[in-house]
Amino acid sequence: MLFAASSEKLRQTSSANIDDCCEACRNAVKQQNGADDTSTAETLTDEHDFSKLAGQTNGLLNVHMWSEICGAELAILRNWPHFPYFPNTRSFISEFHRTQVPASSNNGERIFGFIHPQRSGEYYFAISSDDTSELWLSPNEDPASSEMIARVYSPKESAWTDRGDYKKYPDQISKGITLHAYKKYYIESLSKQGSGDAHVSVYWSYKNSTFEIISSKYLSSFSENNNRESIPPHARKQTGKSKIYFNHLPIISKEEYISLIPSCPYSPSFLVRTKLKQYQGVWLTMESRAPLEVFPQDDTDMMRSNYNSSWVKPNLLLDKNRVESVVDKFVNSLRVRTPLQVEWLIFL
Description:
Layout: H1 2-33, H2 37-43, H3 50-54, E1 61-66, H4 74-78, E2 89-93, E3 97-99, E4 107-115, E5 121-130, E6 133-137, E7 147-152, E8 177-179, E9 185-193, E10 199-206, E11 212-213, E12 219-221, H5 254-257, H6 280-287, E13 292-293, E14 301-304, E15 309-311, H7 320-337, H8 339-347
Antiparallel strand pairs: 1-2, 1-4, 3-10, 4-9, 4-12, 5-8, 5-10, 6-7, 6-9, 10-11, 13-14, 14-15
Helix pairs in contact: 1-2, 7-8
């Protein structure tokens, strides 16, 4: 419910911004021609009629992030088992530019939605990012028809650029692409962050004009829902069910592979490195002032106080009825096995 309300608020805000843009455009023409509202409407041609875009765009793009993925190569994200349908976090942006503040490490991002050109003609696209990235565009609304048109890539190093620098590598600017006014085209960027600064920006240019970041008035999100069916496939991701095989292999010396595999610091807080006394683990949990985190990470946590425990952030990915059903089944199962202990715990 919170997510739906938030999305509706964003949609209404974006629509209001577009309406303001339309009104500003009409007023500018009116002042120039000295005409009334009727003549102003007649002066506006299809090529500059922002009101046509207002009904199609909500000024947003979807942003999905996968956390705790080492390395800076996009192949790592593309081959991640949870990509593209199970991101760790989901959000929206109002222009094709995103900077992670504060910058985080070892993650991958997918930004996707639709662009709505205002004018027909030849467009050029460009991308800049830290670290590597790819820009994909479809000739229509179908994500499966997308092709990579630009990228931040180097065969010799882990590629990255400064903000606004779309000329560092030869593949950052696309070839000319013909788009038609008021048609919508699926677009997405993939970016992989190792360490350091974290940003991605996508620009376009109409008939060799100056490159500009694609603004909200030309954008619409793929979906405002949070279920799997609302997530588009990635054109290069192989479809089909994942198969996991377990094999017994001889142990390899750490010295032989340590320099070949990207690594990231791993020191989970739940590991206890000292010998616990009786009931000490229970009291450590009860007295902890840190959030009791849920695994896998979904930005849901619970704070414990002396008065009560409450969920700081709701779980946006789970249905409330399903959660209650699982909890009820779990508690009922415990009641059957250890009725006295369960009743005692519920009473507490």
